[in-house]
Amino acid sequence: MNEVDNVGYLGIDVGSISTKGVVIDKDFRIIAKTYLRTQGQPIQSIKELLTKLSSQVDRKTKIFGAGTTGSARRLAGIMLQADIVKNEIIAHAIAASYFHPDASTVIEIGGQDSKIIILRDGIPVDFAMNTVCAAGTGSFLDHQATRLGIPIEEFGGRALQAKNRVNIAGRCTVFAESDMIHKAQLGIATEDIISGLCDAIVRNYLNAVAKGKEIKPLILFQGGVAANIGVRKAFERALEQEIIVPDHFLVMGAIGAAILAQEATDSKKTRFAGFEIADIPFQSRAFECEGCPNRCEVIETLKEEVIIDRYGDRCGKWSEL
Amino acid sequence: MKVGIPRALLYYRYGNFWNRFFSELGVEVILSPKTDKTILEKGLGKVSSEVCLPIKVICGHIEELKDKVDFVFLPRLVYLGDKLYACPKMIGIVDIVGLNFSALLRPKIKNDFFLPHFQVGLALTHNPMKSFLAYQRAKEELKFSKTIPDFPSDQPKIGLISHFYNLGDDFIAHDIIATFRKNGFLIYTKEDLPPTILENSKGFAGKIRWIYERELYNAFNYYLDKIDGICNIISFGCGPDSLVGEIMADKAKTLNRPFLQLIIDEHTGRAGLITRLEAFIELVKKRIVAN
Q1: pLDDT (tens digit, 9 = 90+) per residue, A79-128?
Q2: Most buried pick, A5, A12, A81, B92, via CB within 10 A?
Q3: CATH number of domain containing A151
Q4: pLDDT grade, residue B59 (50/70/90)?
Q5: What average pLDDT does range A258-272 have in this prediction?
Q6: Is residue A210, in this structure, part of any structural domain at all?
């Protein structure tokens, strides 16, 4: 290791709604942090993220390891030549137990999915994820805020101004929306309806995602929806316990990926391709293989028009490059 | 004369017996190909969206065979042993298919295998002796003798608790089995256990009146303290599984054993499935290291 270099580890978390990235130093202090919308274009947002992160990092800092997580972790891992590609459940758990070693429960609600992670003595022992339905996740809240003309940042705060309890059906976003409209047409105050929605989201989460799990303190609340004070308060009401929102709740997955990158490169040189890949053209495309009736959808990634990765085939005839 | 057998549901248990029986009868068997997307899509178009995945799959296989054979062989398993029933959809699918398609051979199995099969043989050959002998020769394929498997201590072990028609069908279970194998796991299923364990009617198992649910529960119970984790694969819409799965989840939790329930249907995306599997594998491995 060169004496003049400051050590940095890069972690990025590419979700369906947002792309998050951090650079941490060798003591896991955050030296760069960025959050932006994926907008259905993960390649573009990964590049943008890298540009923004590199502008926050001073020249003397060198990346000694890179990790990726989130639903586009594989794509991100290929672009970055990451040292480790890890699922978001483990990444979130690692970051949670690093900042709060005594945490027993992690509630994570992101743009499209929600999960619960059970930790015992800092080790993840059980988890669950929402299965077929995205009811009560960030994108639904976004949609409702837009519909009511309230900026999403203020949405949760409005719930705290509620004067009355209103019951909103939370099992399904379609029912929830029509229930909200119905209640509004009865003349009920918007604040009361938003507060009812927060309660509905929490009820749905506890009944569907956290069903059967033992929710012990300390409880952490991470992911984009943790920014919503209304939902946090609704959790506190339902669980009758304090809920802690970690300082870096938005980027916990990315921090977890960076910590994992540090472990993965312990005595090894990083494979990381450098922030410069932000300027290199990448492309992903899919085709249906017609080699057999399975008709697998094969996804390939190209870097400067050269195929660097293929996957999705059951037989392996395409994925072996 | 050609008889088509759908490669689905009971085929994964009685396939060898049926192949042998028809070959002894001298009847040509056309087996539908392995499930693929095309077959599944054919099935989806034929049956209510509310039924479970394996029923949709078998409907696709029947569609696939229809125009290629004289008869499709679709037995109705009602009960085995002491009135242990097959699931209602398995019993009823014969009637549903029969509404639109009449060239069905549908022996009704109520514990006894001989008579319904003898009658099928008779209908096809008009030769009672031939049919009798075909059954006598084929019936050895009905013996499912298994010995208790080994549990080597130096390898991670996973129990895949699911119906044979889910695990046997690559289209449904391939990714799950492959992911465990890739991570070095030995795989144990209920089909690896002898009948003495699967048919045990003591304890809670005695209250379960579905044949295969009792087997699943007994296998789960047997493996629970011998292996490192249990993965219970359920097809969405399976009534019996949703009840017994809940009981298994509860017991695994009480005894603090790693347990993952995966619910699959035709919409299940690979990405979410792999994320869950990867996380579960990691939890199980961390536990092995910790112990």
Answers
A1: 999 999 999 999 999 999 999 999 999 999 988 889 999 999 888 999 99
A2: A12
A3: 3.30.420.40
A4: very high
A5: 94
A6: yes
Is residue A48 located within the same domain as residue A113?
Answer: no
Q: List the single residue in A with minimal CA-CA distance to B38.
A: A293
Three-state secondary structure call for residue A207: helix
Does B181 contact chain A (CB < 8 Å)? no
Backbone angles phi, psi at B208, to 5 degrees: -85, 120
The verdict on A40 touching B (C-beta cutoff 8 Å) is: no
Same domain, A85 and A153: no
Read off the pLDDT of residues A172-219 as tens digits, 9 standing for 90 and up.
Answer: 778 888 999 999 999 999 999 999 999 999 998 998 899 889 999 999
Nearest-angstrom CA–CA distance, A321 and A133: 36
| Domain assignment present for A320 | no
| Partners of residue B280 in chain A, C-beta under 8 Å | 127
pLDDT at A317: 87
Host domain of residue A34: 6-93+253-279
Q: Complex ipTM above 0.85?
A: no
Same domain, A191 and A267: no
Flag if B250 and A132 touch (Cβ within 8 Å): no
In this structure, are A241 and A258 located in the same domain? no
Verify that A135 and A238 share a domain, yes or no. yes
**Ordered domains of chain B (ranges, CATH):** 2-142 (3.40.50), 157-290 (3.40.50.11900)
Three-state DSSP class for B214?
helix
**B287 CB near a chain A CB, below 8 Å?**
yes
B38, B253, B286: residue with CB nearest A212: B253
Residues of chain B contacting residue A132, judged by C-beta atoms under 8 Å apart: 236, 263, 265, 267
Residue A134 has pLDDT above 80, yes or no: no
The answer to whether A296 touches A310, Cβ cutoff 8 Å, is no
| Confidence (pTM) | 0.87
d(CA A267, CA A286) in angstroms, rounded, equals: 37
**Chain B contact for A126, CB < 8 A?**
yes
B1 interface with A at CB cutoff 8 Å: no
Question: Please, what is the angle between helix B114-125 and helix B128-138, to 10°?
Answer: 130
Shared domain check, A236 and A127: yes
Q: Please, which residues have CB within 8 angstroms of residue B161's CB and are 6 or more apart in sequence?
A: B189, B190, B216, B219, B220, B223, B230, B231, B232, B233, B248
Q: Is A318 domain-assigned?
A: no
Among A224, A245, A266, give the residue marking a domain's end: A245
